[in-house]
Design a protein that fits this description.
The chain is mainly alpha-helical. Helix content is 38%, strand content 6%. It contains 4 helices and 2 strands. Strands 1-2 form a two-stranded antiparallel sheet.
Length: 136
Amino acid sequence: MAYATKEEYEAETGTTAPANIDRLLTLASRDVDAALIAAVYDPNDEDVQTALREATIEQAAYWLDTGDTTGTGGIAAWTDVQIGSVRLAGGQAGGGQTGSAARPLAPQAHAVLQLAGLTGHEPRTYIPCREEAGDG
């Protein structure tokens, strides 16, 4: 079951949802679940539900913004790239996914989850090692 509805998508994005929005929201919800595979949270908490809904909408919107109308990541990110004597051509312009099974979560979707404290990666401070007296 998707974390967001067509109506929520339209209200959040201010756009008319495509005909396949229910499928996109279901796939986006799976990607959100995959990003939180080891996270511990209360699924009944209203703040968690809001974050899951918003991240799902951001993921679906990202796909549509990058030309991936199916949510499957089947769009190449380049049409013609050359480095030295190596030339790669194909795909479509627009920066869509590469078709890899390891596709990342959309940046805004990840940000929503991170700001809600669901990703398990709290801010860290680097503390340099100090040499103790007598070490060395």
